[in-house]
Design goal:
Layout: H1 4-11, H2 16-29, E1 34-41, E2 51-55, H3 71-74, H4 78-85, E3 90-93, H5 105-119, E4 125-130, E5 136-145, H6 151-154, H7 158-178, H8 187-197, H9 202-209, H10 213-227, H11 232-241
Antiparallel strand pairs: 1-2, 1-5, 3-4, 4-5
Length: 247
């Protein structure tokens, strides 16, 4: 498989630094001098990290990646709006040409302004690829070049690029999960969550498990506290997502 070595390296990466090194090598192999990746989680991990990014721009353009997680910045950034809208990968150049864009005047207007600014930092063309995963608010990566304006030329390997980015996202998900310890629930907490997830009320669970309704509610509250969520529904959903209970 073309670029198979880069795919294996990114899938086996054990740190954010390895993800960045592999992405740099992959971008260079495709003729892109620079890249920038950013991902905002829906909720921070237990170490309070909710935003991940890396970039290799050697000018002030790279500085904007440090602030993309701020709501006032995110709502005006064309790359984030593109990702949140669910559009596919897009090629662009600083002449204002785009390989694909759905008729969205507000997005197109922001994108044109943004590529105009990019031209001031010696970028001539690039590809922006949104990424999706459970637990993400948004994520994207941009590969850029200063050697051509030709959208057909830079887009010839777009399929391999999209696949690489999906593997990159899978590895990031794994690294983030590894940084977030799995809560330890008691057997009784898992039991009441299972029955609650099945749609049983606290009273029904108390009858099934031969407990008082008050005790059932206590275990549900304890489980929610350990899972760092509020309410039984959120606790059930979180427990299922972490593999602590099965539906």
């Amino acid at each position: 498989m073309q670029h198979g070595d880069h795919i294996q390296r990114v899938l086996n990466a054990g740190s954010m630094e390895e993800l960045q090194r592999t992405t740099s090598d992959f971008a260079s192999a495709l003729g892109f001098e620079h890249h920038g990746f950013a991902a905002k989680l829906l909720r921070p991990t237990t170490d309070r990290v909710g935003y991940h990014y890396f970039q290799n721009y050697d000018n002030e353009w790279g500085d904007n990646y440090t602030t993309l997680h701020r709501p006032e910045v995110a709502r005006n950034d064309a790359r984030i709006l593109h990702a949140r809208t669910g559009l596919p990968a897009i090629s662009w150049n600083t002449r204002g040409q785009f390989g694909y864009i759905r008729p969205m005047p507000s997005l197109l207007q922001r994108a044109r302004r943004q590529v105009q600014v990019a031209s001031e930092f010696d970028m001539t063309a690039g590809i922006t690829i949104p990424s999706w995963s459970r637990g993400l608010d948004w994520a994207f990566i941009t590969f850029s070049t200063n050697s051509t304006h030709d959208l057909n030329e830079i887009g010839r390997d777009i399929g391999a690029m999209v696949y690489f980015v999906s593997c990159l996202q899978a590895s990031l998900d794994r690294l983030v999960r590894n940084r977030q310890p799995i809560p330890q629930l008691s057997l009784r907490e898992r039991e009441v969550l299972c029955w609650s997830a099945a749609g049983k009320t606290s009273w029904e669970i108390s009858v099934i498990l031969h407990l008082s309704e008050r005790t059932v509610n206590f275990h549900l509250q304890q489980a929610a506290r350990k899972l760092q969520v509020k309410g039984r529904r959120a606790a059930c959903a979180r427990a299922v997502a972490l593999g602590l209970i099965a539906m």
